[in-house]
Here is the input.
Amino acid sequence: MCRDCGCSLGPDAQRAQSGTAGAGLRTETVEVITAILSANDAVAAHNREHFDRHGVLALNLMSSPGAGKTSLLEATIRAVGGELRIGVVEGDLATENDARRIRDCGVPAVQITTGNACHLDASMVHDALHELPVAELDVLFIENVGNLVCPASFDLGQHRNVTLLSVPEGDDKPAKYPVMFRASDLALLTKSDLLAYLEDFKPARARDALRQVGFQGPVLEVSSRGGEGFTGWLDWLRGEIQAQRARAARGERLRPAVQPEGAALHASPSE
Amino acid sequence: MHELSVCQALIEQVERVARDNDACGVVSIVVAVGPLSGVEPDLLEHAYPIAAQGTLAERATLTIERTPVRVRCRSCGAQSAAAANRIVCADCGDWQVEVLEGEELLLKRVELETSAEPVH
Here is the structure.
């Protein structure tokens, strides 16, 4: 499509046609072709530069409410808090509860309360970064608002998207919410300790549903209460932190899976 | 619900284009929305009058071009249509596909109202 509609044009336009309207007015059509969210994308790019300057890995955690994002972070801090320097941005409609839980684990956390907004955007995260010692971190977790729809559309400046699907939610969630699961680099099947009790949930079916929506990353079964899968998550995390340091040292920039191949063609030159 | 945020971002861009072109009003706006953008066209339409109120785009019509999902198979090379929750090759069924179309969330075109006399 973009080859036909003039994507190579700058945002400041080509006047395609003009006509005359009534009363001393005329109309003209301006071809624009920019991402509607380009203002958000520009702030996200700024955030990403900030992370890359300090070699920090930024991960966006997304899931439905109650899938276990905060519990995953608490368990992660307990397991590797001594080895990795962790910071957390918490997004919720209201309360400081989650940031307090993280601070109780001895890790700096900033709570963003969005009011009624259903997602975090890049400028909310940008404001939160000013309250965190970003330069002293190995990894920053951005815990998005619990919601399987809206957060997928907003780039925050993260390097990777991690989406949690908890066992009680059912193994067909990816088919019901395809956009978010497709936008993920890693899928975690959380509360895997419940697999023994919830026989309807088949990890193989969840994996199949993920492939069907175009998810191409790894799938791990994890329980924040420990076990084999949790080690896999920690290994993935360590690997990503090392890869991010190496990229930052080479001056390379990584955008998550949510950034489609086609987006580059449509990106505003001012970005 | 995020369609209102998306709509506000859209209006900001449209107003910028209008200002850059010394327009006194906006007649029409054309956007392209794909099923993989995470934005629901009907909700965007409903949010539009709320976001446009009191702006240069207040009386503009909004046209939403709904793009389909199209993929190219990395295994067999075929191009085919796909559903948002079944992004696989229609020919061979492989899930290793590249999405060609369907992720758009683009402002494409704006029709502006300007004074008939050129601005100097």
Remarks:
- Residues 1-17, 259-271 of chain A have pLDDT under 50 and may be disordered.
- The longest strand of chain A covers residues 25-35.
- Residues 2-34 of chain A form one domain.
- The beta strands of chain A are 14-20, 25-35, 57-62, 86-92, 109-113, 139-143, 160-166, 186-190, 219-221.
